[in-house]
Amino acid sequence: LHRLNEVIVRGHGSPERYATLALASVHPLPGGGADLTLALAGHPHPLVLRRDGTVEAIGATAPVAGWLPDVSYTDVTVQLGQGDILVMFTDGTLDVVSGRGSMDDTQLRALLTAAPGRTASEVADTLDDRLSGSHLSDDAAFLVIQAT
Amino acid sequence: MTSARTFGVRCRGGEGTLHVDITGELDLAAEPAVVEALSDHLTTHEVSRVVIDVTAVTFIDSSGLRALLRCRDLASRAGAAPALILGGNDGVHRLLEIAGVTNWFVYA
N or C: which end of chain A has fewer CB within 10 A? Predict the structure, then answer.
């Protein structure tokens, strides 16, 4: 991410652009589950839905990419157990679920906790239903991954 | 769906400290107006400090954040110290936090 930030900062003439990113690398573990390493650049914290139904926000806050040089980003590694689900999403998704501009993940957490299924596709369907029934004021994207 | 656009920017003060009061929805539509208002003022006045007040902002998105960052940089480039008044505005504060830029601003 540090390198990407430098590339964006130096790569365009106008400095008045930035991007937010959540960058994850997943390493499956031999006995099942996976190690997930995550770095954030001004992006909403992804959520992990544990098999026991608890939801936790992961990642360390760091600045948006592309505005200033010499920004440092921090990798955070968490372990996903078998069946644990990672949900990454954009701020447009938060706008729909939590209310426009609220930037609060409380309602998204509640939606995930109450999700009827515990497979990645069931969780994705729940989010998809919530998004498609709503007016979008911003683009909304999400990614759901389940450790096996 | 249509909704009434509520947005305003007002520059107060002449020389010395310039106050930029932003009200309503700070989004893509508002971004150029905010930047232009500050830019115009900075070219015609000697300003040593720019205080941006977002207390009355009711909505902010990533374009609004860019507006605040551009104002901060514009002020700095003009030799004026930028400062931000949040006035307990949780929405703006949360966005700055998620964007990781809370400490890029000085607060008045």
Answer: C
pTM for the model:
0.87
For residue B97 the two structure tokens come to 């936090």
* Contact residues on chain A for B91, CB-CB shorter than 8 A: 101-103
Instruction: Read off the pLDDT of residues A2-52 as tens digits, 9 standing for 90 and up.
Output: 888 888 888 775 667 889 999 999 999 999 999 999 999 999 999 999 988
CB contact under 8 A, A64 and B99: yes
Please write down the HEC assignment for all residues of chain A: CHHHHHHHHHHCCCCCCCECEEEEEEEECCCCCEEEEEEEECCCCCEEECCCCCEEECCCCCCCECCCCCCCCCCEEEEECCCCEEEEECHHHHHHHHCCCCCCCHHHHHHHHCCCCCCHHHHHHHHHHHHHCCCCCCCCCEEEEECC
Which residues, numbered 72 to 131 in chain A, qualify as contacts with chain B under a Cβ-Cβ cut-off of 8 Å?
Answer: 91, 95, 100-104
